[in-house]
Amino acid sequence: MISQNLVISRSRDPEYTERPAFERSRLEYEAAADAARGAIFAMTSMRQRMLDLNQRKAAACADAETARIRWSRLLRESGGVLTTDLEDLRASERSSLSLADEYQAMCEELETSLISSEVSAADLAATALSKRRVALSAAAEDAFVDLQMAIGPSFEHAYRLFQREQAESMPPGERHSDKEALMAFVSRFSALILQNSSPTAQQTYESIGISELKVEDIPHELLHSPVRRSMLRELSKNPA
After folding, report:
1. Which pTM value belongs to this model?
2. What is the chain's Cα-based Rg?
3. Kind and range of the H or E element at 198?
4. Helix, coil or strand: residue 215
5. What value does the mean pLDDT take over residues 41-46?
6. Which domain holds residue 36?
7. How many C-beta neighbours within 10 Å does residue 213 have?
8. Which of 39, 84, 171, 233 has the greatest number of beta carbons closer than 10 A?
9. What is the tens place of the pLDDT at every residue in 141-191?
């Protein structure tokens, strides 16, 4: 049975990696993918730092509110007299609010760097994906050549037999044209391929020796829009 497995198994041939066009494009992709992974890691680390700062700010605000509620209650219980406990709670509130303000300032300082990091990751990932398409194109061309070498004569022979069988089994006025016969034959051939489960993207990449690049952490509109990246790049250079 002819299937996708034939194409993939041919691409595992040791000679496959010796093909210069594919090997050159594969190495260029891998270098670009490594750079993109480093930028994505830096971006996600910065996002985590931003998340931590916001969580600390929220906790400081909650502490300030708790202290305010407590000293407000004590003030009423004491009839307006400022006790030591009450003063301590007021000082605690001020300290927590001051800390929250500092966390907010740190978030604002980090925001510009985060934008720059996201743009850099998107730039490098877009470049890597472009190079991966070139590598896949070269691999697909090589695989097609392999397929032709493996089954070309047999494929043509099977088609000619199919064409003759179709011609002799139909009345002259109902016979398929050469183009219609070819389309019918290719449809049968396609059905054989589709009977097999499709490999995942990662399995396809592995079959030709290239690594997968995960870009889920990069905003889609940033990854696929050079214009958007350019706008944000300028914004990070000239923050308000």
Report:
1. 0.74
2. 32
3. none
4. coil
5. 97
6. 4-237
7. 20
8. 39
9. 988 888 888 887 888 888 888 888 887 887 776 777 878 888 888 888 788
